[in-house]
Amino acid sequence: MLLTFGCSKRKHSSDATIRIRWAHDPETLDPLSLHNQAALDAYNLLNISLLQADASTQTLAPALAEALPSVQFLNDSITAIGYRIRSVAAWDSGQPVLASDVDFTLKLMLCPGLPNEVAQSQYHFIRALQVAANDPRRFSFLCRGRSIEYAHTTGDFFILPEAELDPHGSLRHFDLADFQYRRAEIATDSGIQTVVRHYLAAITSQATRQLPGCGAYQLVKWEKDRYITFHRKSHWWADQVRPTPFVLQARPQQLTYAIIPDAATATLALQRGEIDLYPRVPAHEFSRLRASSTAAKTLRFYTSDSHDVATAGFNTRHPILADAQTRRALSQCFDAAGLLRATQLGQGQPTVGLISPNDHLNYNDSIAPLPFVPKSAAALLRQAGWRPSRMGEVMGWTRTPVRGPRQELRLALRYRAGDELFATVALQFQAAAASIDVPVQLLPTESGAFSQALQTGDFDVYLRTLGGNPFMFNFIPILHTAGIGAGNASGYSTPASDQLIEAIAAADSKIRRAQLLRRFQAMMQDQSPMAPLFFLPNRVAASRNLTGIHVNSLKPGYSVMTLAWDSAPQVP
Amino acid sequence: MGRPSYPLAVLIFSRSWPQRIALGWLSVVLLTAALAPVLPLPYLPNVPDLSQVSQPPFSIGKHWLGTDSQGLDILSQLVFGARTAVALTLPATVMAALLGAIAGGAAGFWLNQSRLAAPYWLLLVACVWWALSLPWPWLVLVGAAAASGCLLAIAKWRQRPLPAWRLPLDSIVMAIATTLDTIPRLILVVAIAAGTSVAIQGMLLLLALTSWPQPARLVRAQMLRVRVLPFVEAARATGFSPGRVWLWHALPHAVQPLRAAFPLSMAGLLGLESTLSFLGIGLPPNVASWGRLLAGIRHDQSAWWIAFFPCLCLITSILSLYILSRHQSSQP
């Protein structure tokens, strides 16, 4: 009898907890610097922004804001984006969320001494915030120039509570312009330093009491590299909003993210009922599970396209990779079509750039993806000034620039350890590069160390997934001069590309933006600071009893807030 | 005291059938390892065949033993995995045995009774200083060498012996061995190898440095018996220096137990190397290894051949080493 019970498969737990697999730990819950998707997903539970992605319609919908913003062109150089925060919106302390909190958050995103480089490069276009005199919840962002993206971008950051982080209102003594143009001068202000200290102390603490938010959940427990649990607030302000919009739903009572780096272990956990939802299932695991009659009895399988693109990036700061011809040559050593077939079983889409081929308006279909032709890569290397010669005991490529020492073409390739997709890409690239005598050292790196290496530029080539969305095309954080030292891991920037990226961000019509985006894709293929390989498909496996998954192409690929059990949970 | 050397035929035919099979298998592994680069393999071990992923053995194409989930050829992985196994475990075992023989032999011969003159103490302290990367290591080393030279010169000039203090060699060696033994070897190696990216040479050194305590204990125990035997006493009485007596008379007899322990140590290191490769620790990802090949089953659990062939090689090799070890220990 005992044996029978002991060996029986465990069903989902008797409480309303929903357990989801994460491949790695969020590392930090700093809203100014959310390094990975897990961190972003976690913070989305704790706090919300003015606008949120609606998985049911694949659009941005008002969340903290009462409605979509109003756009007003004040003159040729200023656009006013107007919002009103919902009247019922409140912080955990019970205080209302006000325009002054938005103003405080903007200043914090530009405040010296904080890890806010990405935010700085993304929101540099906001000149000021104007609060309505008669309504503390109504305000307008005054933005430089005109851009169709302002309406989306201005609503896409988490608002932080001023009363909790700056109770003395130290940042109120400064204008937003001071944070943009007088950073060095104001950095020594004691009030600003106190806010910085307070903020850093709050985010570095991994205790259950994190930064207070206005989201539906609070962090209950975080065991690093094991699991992280969130509990729904019993009285969340959005419960009063009727009818509850999709983006303000919060159905699960408790969410536990189990951190299981190994895909096979995660599959086993799903089959044993130890997790309820497994997003981004690797192709082979997904195919095997789908074919299994046992798994079909307890699991459901979902697929969709995604905006995640598998990418190889080059460190353009290193002299050997500083010229476009060398990078283009090396890009031709990636067999994107073969890798797509082998690692994704043919699902997913080949691409010429960072825009999804599904986006017919913006995708540049007049250029072809870079071919896999190592021999032509060797010819390109010759054009780049490289000559076959002996490098120590092996043959390789060297060149001697007019100024500077002799260069040897040998590469260190970094990728996240344990990721089978990139392990295969790395092996394929190494083999192709070896066929033209380019030695490549493979460096699988632990997740945290990998993020660190990308920031410090400790690599020649990296492999990672870049996530996008269909709403915004802001490449400033990843490919602009302003992003160097933050999100621009490749360190690539030229005056022409900076100008084009700025023009895309400031485009005032969809047609104009599409023209610029097409030019941008052609330019990026020519310059090759990164080699986009293919867009990944989104595969989700979940317990049969789980409903409201809303699998979609937006990250994280499903809707966590609408998850629910469709019947009374079964117990062993 | 020397042993007669056996001709090859005697070496083979004087053994039982299990021993012959074990010897045969290990010879095949050794030969495969040595000849791997020149064998006519249809595929290289690190070149993925993206059109033939997770192919079973003897299917279409030239992947005779199939491919793994990355499209790597199983046969060439096995062949080059044998090369890695031999290149890593054989020298590591030899190095560990050498280190163990020297440390254990010295500890057992001199116990805690040897005395070290002041200049040597100075040099010893300087070496420890350097090894611990304390401030100005080279300066301290050079300073100690100069001071030692001066002391020796003064002693020679005054024709007086230098002051000497007792060196507790046996206690030091046994303390280090016990310290290493208290930490499970797998955990120790994982802790060192996981934090740093080590090449094959680094891995070899790491395995050797963590594996010498067992041979050291065996040699020390044997040395305690040998050091009081009449022929060692006779050598001392002849007036040979203690170092010469230790090296030429006592040590060759004290290392005899290592003959039986050698295959066992090698089997242990083979298992350890495979475990590390299975965990993805230590060796670079492009170095073929039976353990790494075995780990491929995690990515495609329906591909039985990914686990079967490396398991077969590992089990057969380790069993063969055990059988050989038993034969060695039964020899007089």
What's a quick, concise take on this entry?
The complex is a heterodimer of chains A (572) and B (332). By secondary structure, chain A is an alpha+beta fold.
Features of the shown structure:
heterodimer; A: 572 residues; alpha+beta; Dipeptide-binding Protein, domain 1; Dipeptide-binding Protein, domain 3; 6-stranded mixed sheet; 20 helices; 24 strands; disordered N terminus; B: 332 residues; mainly alpha; MetI-like fold; two-stranded antiparallel ribbon; 2 strands
If you had to describe this structure to a student in words, what would you say it looks like?
The complex is a heterodimer of chains A (572) and B (332). By secondary structure, chain A is α+β, with helices and mostly antiparallel strands. Helices cover 31% and strands 22% of the residues of chain A. In chain A, the strands form seven sheets. Chain A has a six-stranded mixed beta sheet. In chain A, strands 1-10-9-8 form a four-stranded mixed beta sheet, with helices on one face. Chain A has a four-stranded antiparallel beta sheet with strand order 4-5-7-6, covered by helices on one side. Chain A starts with a helix and ends in a 7-residue tail after the last strand. Chain B has helices at residues 8-13, 17-35, 74-110, 118-131, 137-158, 169-182, 185-195, 200-211, 213-226, 230-238, 242-254, 257-278, 290-295, 304-330; strands spanning 115-117, 164-166. In chain B, helix 7 runs antiparallel to helix 8 (200-211) and helix 12 runs antiparallel to helix 14. The chains are: A alpha+beta (572), B mainly alpha (332). The A-B interface holds A 262-265, 282, 284-285, 288, 335, 338-339, 341-342, 417-418, 420, 423-424, 426-428, 430-431, 441-444 and B 44, 46-48, 50-51, 53-54, 69-72, 197, 280, 284-286, 298-302.
